[in-house]
Amino acid sequence: MGGTVQIKCPNCGLFNTNADHCSNCGTLLSYKKRRELAHEEQKKKRIEREETKEKTSPSWIESSKNSNNPIVRIGAHIMNSIVIVVMAIGAFFAWLFTFLAA
After folding, report:
1. 101: in domain
2. Got the DSSP string for the chain?
3. I want to staple 9 with a disulfide (CB 3.0 to 4.6 A). Which of 20, 22, 66, 76 is the partner?
4. Mean pLDDT, range 29-56, rounded to an integer
5. What is the predicted pLDDT for the residue at 41?
6. How many beta carbons lie within 10 A of that of residue 22, not counting itself?
7. Cross-strand pairs, 16
8. Does the residue 17 lie in any domain?
């Protein structure tokens, strides 16, 4: 299967033989490499969005945990503990009702 492959450049229209880049204008011809570059670009954008989101909008409880005021820090930890306990109780009741229904 080692035959010659001719690809027409989408930019200038020149036919290139067994090349990843156009010999006339330098346009990338390989579909595989184009997909890889597009995938890498999307991955970079997704990581940048996640980092920006984390930096710009922390939850009030997360920002309170890092407060300089010790009373606010203690209150945030207490509220976080209460939320965790309430969620655990809710999960237990959901499991219990599912178990009893089956």
Report:
1. yes
2. -----EEE-TTT--EEES-SB-TTT--B--HHHHHHHHHHHHHHHHHHHHHHHHHH---HHHHHHT-S-HHHHHHHHHHHHHHHHHHHHHHHHHHHHHHHH-
3. 22
4. 86
5. 93
6. 20
7. 7
8. no
Q: Is residue 12 situated within a structural domain?
A: no
Structure confidence by residue, pLDDT tens digits, 17-34? 888 888 888 888 878 888
Residues 71, 86 contacting (CB under 8 angstroms): no
Two structure tokens written together for 67: 């407060």
Give me 55's structure tokens. 């930096």
Instruction: Work out how many domains the chain is built from and give that number.
Output: 1
Whether the per-residue pLDDT at 1 is higher than 70: the answer is no
Residue 41 lies in a domain: no
Q: Tell me the average pLDDT of the chain.
A: 86
Query: In terms of residue numbers, what domain contains 65?
Result: 59-102
